[in-house]
Amino acid sequence: MDTHDAVADWRECKVVRDDSVCTVGSLMEENTVIGLFYGARLCAACRDAMGKLAQCYNQLAVKNHLMLEIVFISSDKDEADFKEFTRTMPWYSVQYKGPARAVLQEAFKVSLMPTIIFLNACGDVLTRDGRVLVQSDSHTSFANTWPLLLKLDEEARELESFKVS
User: Fold this and answer.
1) Beta bridge partners of 119
2) Is the peptide bond before 90 cis (omega within 30 degrees of 0)?
3) What digits encode the pLDDT tens for the residues 129-142?
């Protein structure tokens, strides 16, 4: 599928990091938790959230090798702002051109920035308040939040098991 083709399912959205291209779905297969970070360079709160999220990501995914991946979804008005903002991000981002940004924004009903949504490997929403988790933990180790995300995942799976097919 070309990156500019229509995307039927948000899991098919292509993401890039350096020279690596994959889909959100393939990241879900390889990780326990996926964070979707919606933001824009000209938004001061987004820049602040990005800095705090980068600290958390570096501590969890890079130093502790926990199965966490972040995907940035831009709301930048032009590609130059997008490129400037993503230049220092250590995680994947949805390409600026093409339908994927709109597909992911619509799929998770995002209207405010910054928004950080954490998903489990099945695509279930663990929390839509990821920004609060990231920013409230700024003076302590973000690793304290990892067990909370796993607990939310466990609770989501338990609720799913009670659903009648």
Assistant:
1) 34, 125
2) no
3) 888 888 775 445 55
- pLDDT tens digits, one per residue of 72-124: 999 999 999 999 999 989 999 999 998 999 999 999 999 999 999 999 888 98
Cβ atoms of 40 and 76 within 8 Å: the answer is yes
59: its two tokens: 């501590």
Token readout for 29 is 């297969």
- Report whether 145 contacts 137 (CB < 8 A): yes
Contacts of the segment 47-55: beta carbons below 8 A, 24+ positions apart: 47/85, 48/135, 49/114, 49/116, 49/131, 49/134, 49/135, 50/85, 50/89, 50/114, 52/134, 52/135, 52/138, 53/116, 53/134, 54/88, 54/89, 54/90, 55/138, 55/142
Q: CA–CA separation, 156 vs 160, rounded Å?
A: 6
Please state, in angstroms and rounded to a whole number, the distance separating the CA atoms of residues 118 and 124.
Answer: 9
Distance of CA 2 to the CA centre of its chain: 22
Tell me whether strands 20-23 and 14-17 are parallel, antiparallel or unpaired: antiparallel
- Supply the pTM of this predicted model: 0.83
Ranking 40-44, 69-73, 133-137, 142-146 by mean pLDDT, the lowest is 142-146
